[in-house]
Amino acid sequence: MTNGDLPRYRHILVITTIDFDKVPNQRVHHLINYWANHADQLDVVYTRYLNLRDQHTDRPRAANIRYLPVPFNSHNELFDDHVRSHRMATVAGSYDLCFAEGPWAGAVGRLLLERGQVRFLVYEDLDYFPAFFPPTMAPEVAALENGAILAAHLVFCVSRELVRRRAAELSIKAYHSPNGVPFAAFAGQRRPRHRPTAIYAGALDRWSGIDTVIRSWRRVRRRHRRARLVVVGGGPHLRRLRRLARRYRVSRSVVFRGHVPYSQLPRYLARADIGIATLRPGELATCAFPLKFLEYMAAGLPTVCCNQGDMAAIAQITETGLAVRFRYSSIAGAIGRLLRRRSQRRVMGKRAQRLAWFYDWTNIFDQQLHIIAGARG
Predict the structure, then answer these.
(1) Amino acid 165: pLDDT
(2) 250 and 173 in contact (C-beta within 8 Å)?
(3) Is 25 within 8 Å of 201 (Cβ atoms)?
(4) Residue predicted with more confidence, 4 or 164
(5) What is d(CA 6, CA 2) in angstroms, rounded to the nearest whole number?
(6) Dihedral sign computed on CA atoms, order 45, 74, 59, 200
């Protein structure tokens, strides 16, 4: 099928539980940017969490994009089927194509499909969501997500592990559609002189594993006295991580930048030498394929990650990073090795940047466009 044969959609719907007033950058931001170019009108139904403070965000904007915020007092209200369907499934009209990401948005998309308001439902499989919750809640989340996956016409998984899991557990064919990166924004930055720097860019939650990096930082500093760790992002663990840096007496070399606009992130990465993506081991990390990994690659940084999931496989096979065990000595050793071996670091970084071009968001969503067009006939 040639580009000239690809259809233009009259009306596309995107359903997400990402709050665009609080979260600076996720896959859905880039999905909206791309698909708005293939639709006369694109509506975005998203959750607006009233209990959380707004942050500076760079949401996609175009004349044909309409945002439809749905107020929620907290994340807990998403578990109430009546509240969720009553608030999020009240859009009027019909849609040629609907993208729903995550269990709760997927349940709303399924409801709209059953009502006849959605003609073609695509489920965006971003994470293994039950792993975010305690054992008492995980089965409910899994059932909600499985129902949405089975109802969808197509399922796109961000990791190969998710593709395998869906095939094994639900006997469906899912397509691999990895996360991506706006390649030119990260690859086009000048690299000024700076201190030896490792950087973490992302959410500060328990699953991020950044606390273990901070605990290991004293080991790094023993041999690299000028080295610093820059932490970009916010989250529920920010205060605890600041206290942890003081407790381990590394607060002068661990710099917390907090939330920054996504448009500024490439400049921070241009002042770093190593990317950190040491997710805490478990099902969540095994199924994840985080944006930060690709952002580091596009910026020309080798990545230190843990030895599980797609991220570790790519780092090892392509020699664009070091995949290590999730323990202090292993993480500190990998960071120290890359700081010490400048030539190896540069070779890995150049190799990573060349590979990152294939993950440009346009390439990722072009593949989706062709798959959807083929499935719809």
Answers:
(1) 96
(2) no
(3) no
(4) 164
(5) 7
(6) negative
